[in-house]
Write a structure and sequence with these properties.
By secondary structure, the chain is of the alpha/beta class. It is built from eight helices and eleven strands. A six-stranded mixed sheet has the order 3-2-1-9-10-11, with helices on one face. A five-stranded mixed sheet has the order 4-5-6-8-7, with no helix packed on it. Strand 1, helix 1 and strand 2 form a beta-alpha-beta unit. The two termini are about 25 Å apart. The relative contact order is 0.18.
């Protein structure tokens, strides 16, 4: 049986990330399986207190050979776009929003790199300081993140897919940002789609998709799951908790 682990939207919470990695290590030990992949579903940064620590932790884990896959979320994309040679604003944001809007979380992310964002400062004034503070290897890490990962009968993305479009034809815009069209679809997408992006109260299995974002970016839990076939379990300090398909007992 193919076994895969996945972690929801982290949003700068290094303490929560380390805690769910520990739960994964415990489950691996029970299964005598120390090499099953761990998929991080994106949104590594913003809102939480230690985005820098999260990125450092993930880079270090991959460097020492951990079987970790890290996907690009919309917040990671916004950060990477802002820190380019010439800062860009993601066109999927609302008009008058940018990465440093108080509701987005970029201010907290820059604080983790020691950069304060004073009220009223203009982008051209802040950008050189922000770019200098974020190490080049962090910027390269963000720019190189994939937006999709396939593992057996599973497909991992940050936000979702556009129904009716072949997986190989999906756009990064949709993989990082889509909501309503994907959530409303009851279509069989082929693989089970595992995603985050839109917080839910608990990990929810909808039959054709599984949402594992349980709101770490809003002060709630960061969840880790283990998937075998198309069966999903939430990992807890007490062990596995089965995630039933919505509408079933």
């Amino acid at each position: 049986m193919v076994r895969t682990y996945a972690i929801g939207d982290i949003h700068g919470h290094l303490d929560k990330l380390k805690a769910v990695h520990a739960l994964i290590d415990e489950d691996r030990a029970r299964c005598s399986d120390d090499n099953a992949p761990v998929i991080h579903i994106g949104d590594l940064v913003d809102r939480g207190p230690d985005a820098r620590g999260v990125i450092d932790h993930l880079i270090a884990g991959q460097a020492r050979g951990e079987n970790w896959v890290v996907l690009k979320g919309n917040h990671d994309r916004m950060m990477e776009m802002f820190l380019r040679d010439h800062p860009m604003v993601d066109t999927h944001l609302l008009i008058d929003y940018n990465w440093l809007h108080p509701r987005i979380g970029g201010i907290e992310t820059l604080a983790s790199y020691g950069v304060e964002v004073p009220d009223g400062i203009r982008t051209y004034q802040l950008h050189p300081t922000a770019r200098a503070a974020v190490p080049e290897h962090h910027r390269e890490f963000l720019s190189g993140l994939p937006a999709m990962h396939r593992e057996g009968d599973l497909c991992f993305v940050h936000a979702g897919i556009r129904p009716g479009v072949a997986l190989e034809d999906q756009t990064e815009d949709d993989l990082c940002w889509i909501r309503e069209e994907f959530h409303a679809s009851t279509a069989d997408h082929g693989p089970l789609i595992v995603h985050g992006h839109t917080p839910v109260d608990r990990v929810t299995h909808y039959g054709n998709r599984v949402n594992i974002d349980t709101g770490a970016g809003h002060g709630k839990a960061l969840s880790a799951v283990v998937i075998e076939g198309r069966e999903v379990w939430l990992l807890s300090p007490e062990g596995r908790v089965a995630v039933q398909q919505a509408g079933t007992q």
